[in-house]
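Data availability (excerpt). The following record was deposited with the supplementary files.
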Amino acid sequence: MRFRGSSFILLTLLTLLLLLGSCQQQSGTDTVSSVWIGGSGGLAASFEQIGTNTEIYEDESFPVVVLLQNRGEFTLHANEVDMKIKGISESDFSGLDFEKTNSDQMDKISEYLPDGGYERTNFGDAQYQGLTGTFYDANIYLEYTYPYATYISIPGVCFKEDLRDERVCDVSAAKTAYASAAPIQIGAVTEKPYGSGKIYLEIPIYNSGNGRSKAYAGDDFSSIYDIVGFTVETPGMECTSRGDPSVVRMARKTADTSSASQATIVCTSDTLEKGSLFTKQVDLTLTYYYQDLTSTRVRIKENPQLD
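Predicted structure:
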């Protein structure tokens, strides 16, 4: 009796394992992994600390050194990052360069370079001129502007000519979408019915960082919008944002809004042949110039020995 009971339990376990393996194998066919590492990182900048504290005497100079780190999936080449010292007057300091560009290439993050490329930029040894009073707080800002791109991949878009056909894929569903690591990111992508033989995708994008963006190098940064250029890489698809086929505008996050506003890129296709029934990846590229700030404070104290 013990042998029969054990055999029954063993047979039941084997059956469950086979069923579980079958389910996992079936669901695995629908799983698509991202080709991007992902994340919201772009170019990060920080001032190196001045010694053990941020206080110096009025007759001392202090080094102004910035560490750049590329935390996204877009390589930055030499002289592509424009850096400007803000917050202090050029006439108040000697020994300081107020504008610089990066001298070396900063590689994107990858499997073999998970932290991305680095560069140290030395702006010189600054000395304050003409202290009045017992101290002066120098609030030093770095404004840095750089070109960047976000690559978007939507692997499971349903191309279905006959909307009544319930096989293979669904045209009325949220779609898994992936984006490369960059400050401009995507929201939840949705496919909707658009008519027989037509495809309709809604792709929300937003600014995940604290900086601002513009589409082209020669443009000025807008005070109210983040602006991004886009191109569709998939033949047969046409994309627009509020009727514009090349640029999307997002209302910038303000003190009155807790999060950045999204803007939507709409992609359509009406070139499906009769009987089409398949899934296909749709790719887009967002291109822009991103500007951000970082800061530090140095207290410049009166030196009593100079009296």
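Summary of structural features: The chain is about 10% helix and 45% strand.
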